[in-house]
């Protein structure tokens, strides 16, 4: 079944015209840098609805939005768990958590089963905002895969999982293989 059928009649999928497409090398000619460029371009394009419709209206940053939506889907998560789920560094998560708390959108509670663990929950205001923004997020997700058949979506998810696993792999000492591989030549110490 095609995901095109899940889209409303008011917003049909339109393929870009040949003149609107950016030049792309054929798959056999694409370099790893071409692939990286495509992934980065995709990520940037996916943020357009957020910056156009949500950011200013709800006075929320991208990281705050991502965390709010994740807490809505995974209630009672801890900050470090959200950092792992999003791939956002812990300091950025910490800043977003502080901003969401400041605006009364989330609360931090001690886990009754583990007093050292603090969980994040949506407040009434956070629930309200989550309810307002969730349909927009679902529309973005639906549109993203609208030109793919179900089997292609499954394959895309497998590729994405493989790429994430590759980036998250560690060596025997627990060091990131990705950061070690991408370390500039002659740089023995990681920078802060």
In CATH, the topology of the domain at 49-171 is named Arc Repressor Mutant, subunit A
Indicate the overall shape.
globular
Task: Tell me the CATH architecture of the domain at 49-171.
Answer: Orthogonal Bundle
Rounded average pLDDT: 86
Distance between the termini: 48 Å
Strand/helix succession: HHHHHEEHHH
The gyration radius over C-alpha positions equals: 20 Å
| The CATH top-level class label of the domain at 49-171 | Mainly Alpha
The order of strands across the largest sheet is: 1-2
Summarize the structure.
The chain has 192 residues and is mainly alpha-helical. It has a two-stranded antiparallel sheet with strand order 1-2. GO terms for molecular function: DNA binding; DNA-binding transcription factor activity.
What does this structure look like?
- This protein is mainly alpha-helical and 192 residues long.
- It has a domain at 49-171: Winged helix-like DNA-binding domain superfamily/Winged helix DNA-binding domain (Arc Repressor Mutant, subunit A).
- It is 54% helix and 8% strand.
- It is built from 8 helices and 2 strands.
- It has helices at 32-46, 48-58, 62-73, 79-86, 90-102, 124-144, 150-168, 177-181, and strands at 106-111, 114-122.
- The protein has a two-stranded antiparallel sheet with strand order 1-2.
- Helix 4 crosses helix 5.
- The longest helix is centred in the C-terminal third of the chain and has 21 residues, at 124-144.
- The radius of gyration is 20 Å and the shape is globular.
- The model is unreliable at 1-12 (pLDDT under 50).
